[in-house]
C-alpha cells in the first residue's frame, strides 16, 4: 500500500480550517493531515518542524502572510508542494505565487471538488518526482560538475564546436538537441551520439551544467537577487531551478549566495 502523503493546513479562520480538515476525504486522496496552524508565524515554524509533503495556506493571516511564508520556505522545503487558498483574486498575488512555483491557487468560498482536484494533482507531482529520482540526471550533476570544462575548449569537430557555441550564446533560451540538429542538417541521433563521444556529456547535461556555472557566477554579484537568477539562466520554474542548483552544488541558491557550505550528507 502506498504511503499517505502528509499535509499541513495554515488558515486563520477556524471555521474554514476545521471545515477543510474535517470534511475533505484525505484517505481517498492518499493524504493525511499532520498539523494545523492559525497564523503565518506558527505555520512556518510547524512546517520546518514537520516538513510536510503539501502545505495548504491562506494569504491574509496575522503575523505573517502566506506569500511571505512560502518565500521563506520555498528553498528549504524543495520537495514540498504549496497550495494557496485566498479571498483575493488579485493578479499580483497569483503572479508572485506562480514565481514561487505554486501550482494550486484556490479562491474562497472553497469548492470541495476543486480543492480535492488540486490536492490530487499536487500528490501526483510529488509521487512522479519521487519515481523519477532513481534515474534522474539531477543525481549525477554533482559528480559531473567536478570535471565540467570552462568555456572555450576546442573539441575539434565542427558540429560539436557549433553546438557548444550555441549553448554558450543562448543558454538562457529554450534549447534542445532536436532543433539544433535540424538547424545543422544532421539527425538528432547523430548529433546526440557525437556530442556524448566528444564532450563526455549528453547535450542536456552540458546545457544544464553550463547554466549552473553561470548561475553561480551571477549569485556572486551583490546587486543580483536570488530570484532574478533563474530566468537569467533559462529556468521559468524557480523551484525546479533550486532543485537543479542544489543537485549540482549541494546547497540552495540562497545558501550559496550567503556563502554557506554544502549540507552534511549532500
The geometry reads as elongated
User: Can you tell me the residue ranges where pLDDT is under 50 for at least 5 consecutive residues?
Assistant: none
CATH homologous superfamily caption of the largest domain: Response regulator
Main CATH class of the largest domain:
Alpha Beta
The number of helices is 13
- pLDDT averaged residue by residue: 89
The CATH topology of the largest domain is given as Rossmann fold
- Read across the widest sheet, the strand sequence of neighbours is 2-1-3-4-5
Rg value? 21 Å
> What's the CATH architecture name of the largest domain?
3-Layer(aba) Sandwich
Number of beta-strand segments: 5
Domain count: 2
Task: Give a quick account of the main beta sheet: strands, pairing sense, barrel closure.
Answer: 5 strands, parallel
Series of H and E elements: EHEHEHEHEHHHHHHHHH
Portion of residues within helices:
40-55%
**What portion of the residues fall into strands of 2 or more residues?**
5-15%
Distance between the termini: 30 Å
Overall SS class: alpha/beta
Describe the structure.
The chain is α/β, with parallel strands linked by helices. It folds into two domains: 5-134, Rossmann fold; 138-257, Homeodomain-like (Arc Repressor Mutant, subunit A, Orthogonal Bundle), CATH 1.10.10.60. The chain is 53% helix and 11% strand. The chain has 13 helices and five strands. The chain has helices at 14-23, 40-50, 66-73, 91-99, 112-132, 138-145, 158-170, 177-184, 188-199, 203-219, 226-232, 238-249, 253-257; strands spanning 5-10, 31-37, 54-58, 81-86, 104-107. It has a five-stranded parallel sheet with strand order 2-1-3-4-5, with helices on both faces. The longest helix has 21 residues, at 112-132. The protein is elongated and about 70 Å long. The protein starts with a strand and ends in a 9-residue tail after the last helix. The mean pLDDT is 89.
